[in-house]
Structure formats: C-alpha cells, structure tokens
Amino acid sequence: VKAAEQWAASSGCVGVFHSVPCSQWCAIRCRGDKGPPQLFSRDYPDGIPGPTGVVPPAASNAVLLAANCLKICRGAIRCGTPAIGENPVTRGQGSPWAIIGHETHSSFFDLTAVKEFQVDTGSEVVFADRCMFGGSTPKTTGFMLSPDLLLDTDPETSFPLVTGKRGKCVHTSHTRGPNPVAPGQFQTTGSERLEPDLCTAIAAALL
User: Which residues pair with 126 in a beta bridge?
Assistant: First the structure.
C-alpha cells in the first residue's frame, strides 16, 4: 500500500481509479433467506458485529481494502492528481434508489472512512445508470470524483456525469428476472465488469 501511495503521489501517475469489490455490500444479502449473510447495515455501516461482538473478517477485510484504496487516493489528490472511485448505490430506506425489502441495506459509500474522505478531500459522488454506457441493466452506480474532476465541464474532457450526459436511464425496458441461458443466475450476473464505453469515459476524464 505504501508503495502504491508513493506512486500515486509521483509525477508518473496521471490518475487513480478504484473499484472495491461490491459483493460484500450486495443488496441481495438483505433478504434474510438462505443466501450469504448481510455484513453491513444502516445501523452498522462499518460492519455488523457477530454473536461475540466482533465484526466478521469478511466485513473487516472489506473495510480495510476500502481504507487502503482511499489512502492511495489521498496521496494522489495531495499532489493534484485526479481520483475516481466506483461502487453501486445504497438501496436502503431513505435512499433515492431504495428497494422494498432491502430497507437496512448499506453501501460502500456509507462507510465512515468514505464519508471522512469526502469531507477531507472535497470529493463528491455523482450517479449513473450503467445501461447508459451499454449495460444490459440499469445497475445505478456512484462515482466518487476528486474536486478537479467536478470542476471540469469541458464536454470533450469531462466525466460525462459532471455535465449531465448519460446519467439517468432513458430506456423503456430492460431484461429482468432469471437468466434463461444460465439457470440459477440472474441477468445482472457479470455486471461487475465495467462496460467498455464506461472505461473509455473514465480514462478520458483521468487523462
């Protein structure tokens, strides 16, 4: 981590992008069925304690990974290098993207470390439906941008969401429900991979 932090703060780094695996914050964990247990909640955004009062490793390791990513980003931002962080939005009660039955859901952006990072660096989160970049489902996602990216409104160089381009879904329908090609999976399977068009937009903003 220290080496990556130093590299991010060097003249050889043009930008930092991080996408912490979102599986530990997956909203489906809130269903309370026989699937993977919920690790984070609105009451415990930094990890739900187990029976002994200790946060399980699956949650604490996710928090540690997030903290390390933010540490690298801090190194970049201190030197004027832009940084972008990506993760799905919160689906819990009170969220603009709330889902019935997922009221307790908490996302990466609810972590104490993330909130402190935003305050300290002036970074802010903008949102987009991934279908606007070629995804098969909306999968509304947040992108945490450093201040310099938020101020860039040039249509040719800015991140599309800053100038209001390709943010909210404008499609009339999407494929939903069980995936007929792969029984037991859903159409959102594979959506953790960023769409090529979105990768291009991220690279263009950082470069």
Answer: 143
The helix/strand/coil state of 73 is helix
Could you list the mean pLDDT of each consecutive 10-residue stretch along the chain, which spans 207 residues? 92 94 90 86 97 96 97 95 94 92 95 97 90 82 91 71 66 54 50 82 87
Tokens of 111: 């972590």
State whether the Cα torsion 42-25-56-121 is positive or negative.
negative
CA distance 59 to 39: 6
Tokens of 109: 């952006």
**47 φ/ψ sector (left φ>0, alpha ψ -120 to 50, else beta):** left
Using CA atoms, how far residue 122 sits from 119, 141, 146, 149, in Å, is 5, 19, 7, 11
Tokens linked to 146: 């450093």
